[in-house]
Amino acid sequence: MKRSFACLMLLIAIFVVITPAAKGEEQEQSTTYVIQKGDTLWGLSRRYLNDPNYWPNLWARNPDISNPHFIFPGQKAKIYPDRIVIEPGSEQAAIAAKMGDELVPAMSFVVSGAEGFLVEKKPVPSGYIIATNRDRVIVGAGDKVDTDIGRLQGAKEGDRYSIYKEAKQVAHPVTNVTLGYKIEPLGSLRLIQVEDHASRAMIDKSYKEVEAGSFLLPYRDRRREVSLKSAIRDLRGVIVETQTGSQVAGEGDMIYIDLGKKDGIEEGNLLYVIRDVKPEKLYGERPVETLPVEVFGAVVITEVLDSTSTALIIKSVETIYRGDRVEVKALK
Q1: Among candidate residues 106, 136, 155, the one where a domain is terminated
Q2: In what order do the strands lie in the sheet with 76-79?
Q3: What range does the domain containing 296 cover?
Q4: 3-state secondary structure of 281
Q5: What is the pairing mode between strands 84-86 and 16-17?
Q6: What are phi and psi of 76, to 5 degrees?
Q7: How far apart are CA 308 and CA 262, in angstroms?
Q8: What does the DSSP assignment read for 182-246?
Q9: How does pLDDT run across 140-186, given as a tens digit for each residue?
Q10: What's the per-residue H, E or C state across 19-45?
Q11: What's this model's pTM, rounded to 2 decimal places?
């Protein structure tokens, strides 16, 4: 029972220990709290602890807590000055864990649609923006543009299209194998005047500057809410690209990783950003081959394609680099 519950508690911004009380803990002052439906570890952390940025180091010291995504109504939590200890739940909670019933997700995240994604094959555009109002270099929401989509292509007034930046080829930072193309959304437009071979359109939404040459695809609303979800298998991947194209990223940035549907990754999965620690050979009398990995961030998967996925960095205690590894162990 204890072993099955050691993988259930979410570790975002706080450290949650699922082990028997260590010697001396009984002498520490604590407060017992019963988890209610709707409680989240994020909320408990904000309410009772005041040092959320220390969680990666604490998690790294407790590798048995591999994929703790949920807490359960009725579980008891001991609140200490420096940590929260979630006690193992009841047999009913264990059954609920396996069935996915009555789970209390720790947090959800809103996807705006501007995050972008990686695809294996270069998309075939429906058309292009061929001119901007008054030949301006960049335009945005409220501006008019001309496209090469016309009546003979099946277009009609009111049709809406998503605007994308020219696709950039992306290579894996470790293997140098081409993964596909980065698709970067710029906004959307609506056709307001349609001719046989061309049309005039109004940009009704813009995430970034729009230029002539941007390509168009049928509109798809990508806005949605993503809730945390436990992984169904162990996941290990690499950060292959950032939304900005920079080599570095931090909290709040979007990244792309080399895991997709074929790997069993799903929207809402939380993965930890890790890096190997190399032992210093100048010190110590015995050879040390490996050291525990350094945990310095966490990401939540917001969109999954066949071979790649998009993720939001929700925590970083230091700079995250293209090529850094991400991983999580599955709920057992």
Answers
A1: 106
A2: 16-17, 84-86, 76-79, 31-34
A3: 225-328
A4: coil
A5: parallel
A6: -105, 140
A7: 9
A8: EE-EEEEEEEEEE-SS-EEEEEEEESS-B-TT-EEEE-----EEEE----SS-EEEEEEEETT--
A9: 999 999 999 999 999 999 999 999 998 899 999 999 999 999 999 99
A10: CCCCCCHHHCCCEEEECCCCCCHHHHH
A11: 0.69
